[in-house]
Amino acid sequence: MAASCRFLVRFNTLQKCILSVNANAECSISSALGGIRHKSTISQSEQHQYDLVIVGGGIVGAATAQELITRHPNLKLAILEKEKELAAHQSGHNSGVIHAGIYYVPGTLKARLCVKGMEMAYKYCDKHQIPYKKCGKLIVAVEPEELPRLDVLMERGLKNGVKDIRMVGPDAIKEIEPNCVALKAIHSPHTGIIDWGLVTKHYGKEFEKRGGNIYTNYEVDTFLTKAESKEGSIQGLTHNVEIHGSNPANPVVSCRYVVTCGGLHSDRLAEKSGCNPEPKIVPFRGEYLLLAPEKCNMVNGNIYPVPDPRFPFLGVHFTPRMDGSVWLGPNAVLAFKREGYGYTQFSLSDFVDAVSFRGLRKLAVKHLGYGIQEMYKSIYINAQVKQLQKFVPSLKLEDVRRGPAGVRAQALDRDGKLVDDFVFDSGSVDMSSRVLHVRNAPSPAATSSLAIAEMVADRVEQQFQL
Ligand SMILES: Cc1cc2nc3c(=O)[nH]c(=O)nc-3n(C[C@H](O)[C@H](O)[C@H](O)COP(=O)(O)OP(=O)(O)OC[C@H]3O[C@@H](n4cnc5c(N)ncnc54)[C@H](O)[C@@H]3O)c2cc1C
Predict the structure, then answer these.
(1) Which of 65, 216, 311, 433 has its CA 20 to 30 A from that of 181?
(2) CA 127 to ligand 1 centroid distance, Å
(3) Mutate to test the pocket of ligand 1, among 67, 85, 89, 258 (most ligand atoms within 8 A of CB)
(4) Atom 4, ligand 1: which residue's CA is nearest?
(5) What is the pLDDT of residue 315?
(6) What pLDDT sits at residue 309?
(7) pLDDT at 1 over 80
(8) How confident is the model at residue 43 (pLDDT cuts 50, 70, 90)?
(9) What are the pLDDT digits (tens) for 16-32?
């Protein structure tokens, strides 16, 4: 948007900008990994000058950074992340499932990237000794009217090339999950569990090993562009984008190209470079319940219901965690703050921003009943337990307590339609030849992260002619 994107057109202005950072001053770039600090005595303007900057240190940003630096070891790359460490939001607050790719409409990016991403994730974790468990998954139908929908899922899974899935009846279900009762289920033996936050930090570590820099506590506030020189080679004029942080202590970072992977803020980051504010991100909190430690042997693997096809959420499920605990959930309620993990976390500006958006109002009118049900389940956890008892009848209310929450970045268009697949945007303004925004990286983007990174890197190479 023009208001946030000023143009510096005169070379002397550019010089001033570069010199406004103390020459030869000592500068620290905090590492996301354990607070190590790298020290350097080169000039600040040079030190904070990059070929390409990735904004957002979630799993998509970190995987993309790792892929790009592996392909282009001679380029200087950095990640800018507003929190004190990587994976502070969606990538560190999720179900921790390695999805196999059953649900997604065949041919969509979501379907292709998930199936490929799962294979890549297992290989990567084996190579780097990142722990995971291939504990499998059942998608269970408990009511006769769910059976046709289960068949549709099976068909999709087979079309998507998901390996070794099979339809099982009540006896086989009992063998796999002795406490589960259902009419029929899809069994996916290769579905697994992992700590996606740990994986994100590993991507970051590999990126740093290959020479990339990670700036944490750096919230990108403004993108500025400088006029292109005709030759494009006059000292300084090749690094045409200037990035300013919201904290005056943040150094000015200049670069040739920018990729943003901003998760819950992806629409705002796109708007800052002059792109359309839509699709808009609306935050939906997903709250989990925790199974009492002595009940954690109630399930062996993941147990999911047949999802409601009107929504992109997979339904309240049982998910074992890498630490031996079991999470139940999540539900989906509107969050009052983009990164609001509890009811008490409220941001007036985020709230007004969401409810004044025509797309959200349209969605609310269309699905008012569903929204109220989800709110009810969020307040009265026995409603959520009842849902889970449909397939694990031995679960009791006293077996559970409230647990953590995650917030999903749900992209929404102005007609209230949930945007279900990936959205890339560069806009059509002055910065468009220099910026690529990943505006929607929906679940299962953690599972798909390495495949998404390949796709984003291909796009970057094509668009920026790297
Ligand atoms: C409740 C829940 C359960 C899920 N379960 C699964 C699952 O089991 N399996 C699976 O594969 N996927 C799952 N997902 C989806 C998956 O977690 C996300 O799709 C994925 O983490 C998205 O990664 P990201 O990098 O796009 O976003 P994020 O992880 O949100 O990262 C975006 C980053 O950008 C930073 N940022 C934003 N604005 C700025 C700025 N101005 N300056 C600097 N930095 C900025 C943020 O601080 C953040 O770190 C789940 C998601 C949720 C919410």
Answers:
(1) 311
(2) 24
(3) 89
(4) 94
(5) 87
(6) 82
(7) no
(8) low
(9) 332 233 333 333 464 43
**Nearest ligand 1 atom to alpha carbon 286:** 1
Q: Which atom in ligand 1 lies closest to the alpha carbon of residue 406?
A: 1
Q: Tell the residue nearest (CA) to atom 46 of ligand 1.
A: 56
Confidence (pLDDT) at 227: 63
Pocket of ligand 1 (CB under 6 A): 55-61, 80-83, 88-91, 94-97, 99, 219-220, 261-265, 269, 286, 330, 406-408, 441-447
Is the confidence at residue 389, as pLDDT, over 90? yes
Ligand 1 probe mutation, 93, 94, 193, most atoms within 8 A of CB: 94
In this prediction the pTM is: 0.91
How many angstroms is it from 431 CA to the middle of ligand 1? 25
**150-164, 201-215, 373-387, 399-413: least confident range:** 373-387
SS (H, E, C) the chain: CHHHCCEECCHHHHHHHHHCCCCCCCEEEECCCCCCEEEECCCHHHHCEEEEEEECCCHHHHHHHHHHHHHCCCCCEEEECCCCCCCCCHHHCCCCEECCCCCCCCCCHHHHHHHHHHHHHHHHHHHHCCCEECCCEEEEECCHHHHHHHHHHHHHHHHCCCCCCEEECHHHHHHHCCCCCCCEEEEECCCEEECHHHHHHHHHHHHHHCCCEEECCCCEEEEEEECCCCCCCCCCCCCCEEEEECCCCCCCEEEEEEEECCHHHHHHHHHHCCCCCCCEEEEEEEEEEEECHHHHHHCCCEEEECCCCCCCCCCCEEEECCCCCEEEECCCEECCCCCCCCCCCCCHHHHHHHHCCHHHHHHHHHCHHHHHHHHHHHHCHHHHHHHHHCCCCCCCHHHEEEEEEEEEEEEECCCCCECCCCEEECCCCHHHHCEEEEEECCCCCCCCHHHHHHHHHHHHHHHHCC
Instruction: Report pLDDT digits (tens) over 80-123.
Output: 999 999 999 999 999 999 999 999 999 999 999 999 999 999 99
Q: Which residue's CA is the nearest one to ligand 1's atom 3?
A: 94
pLDDT (mean) for 166-178 = 98
**What is the distance between the alpha carbons of residues 277 and 442, in angstroms, rounded to a whole number?**
18
